[in-house]
Amino acid sequence: MTQSGDTTTGTERVSLSELDGDGRTPLFEGDPRTVRLALDAGESVPPHRHPGQQILFLVREGEFDLHLGTETLSLSAGEIARFDGAQDISPTAVTDAEALVVLADE
To answer: Given this structure, which CATH class describes domain 21-105?
Structure first.
């Protein structure tokens, strides 16, 4: 992964095209926590919660079924969802898929 930045302004930059591997890859240190999520078709993340955080889930490639509590959102490339992290969250890749997930304190 290529990460660069300007220490005087606090600006950081990551090249998504240069990321290695699948799964969950943190992109920056500190808050807001930003993660690249890459799953093969049929893979999912077990239900979990992020209390006290708002979450942005941006689908970059493929399709996800995003299970939020009792609701399921079907999201395709280019779509974004924002939701409360206090509920059960479980993304499932319908196709090979990649998303950027941003977790911000409320």
So the answer is: mainly beta
